[in-house]
């Protein structure tokens, strides 16, 4: 029984680590791009944003890229560079 519990705990930890967010460097909020302006830039690049949020020190979007693939992308809010992305085919 103890072995079964240990395996379950390890599986739960591994799955939560797999879905961990990105690490963006902490920067003063006054240096961040405005959310609305950043979303407009992404839309101009062909992204369809279904959900936009602040995740830790990153901007995060859920939606589709210009190829129509589902995406989850974390961006540095100052530079606008993607720091982590997951794309579903």
Automatic annotation (TrEMBL):
The keyword Signal applies. Residues 1-20 form the signal peptide. InterPro entries: PepSY. Residues 5-86 form the PepSY domain. Keywords: Signal. Pfam families: PepSY_2. This is PepSY domain-containing protein.
């Amino acid at each position: 029984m103890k072995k079964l519990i240990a395996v379950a705990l390890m599986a739960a930890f591994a799955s939560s680590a797999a879905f961990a967010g990105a690490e963006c460097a902490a920067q003063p909020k006054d240096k961040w791009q405005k959310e609305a302006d950043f979303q407009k830039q992404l839309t101009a690049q062909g992204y369809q944003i279904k959900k936009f949020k602040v995740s830790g020190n990153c901007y995060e979007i859920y939606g589709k890229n210009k190829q129509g693939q589902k995406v989850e992308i974390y961006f540095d809010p100052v530079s606008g560079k993607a720091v982590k992305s997951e794309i579903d085919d």
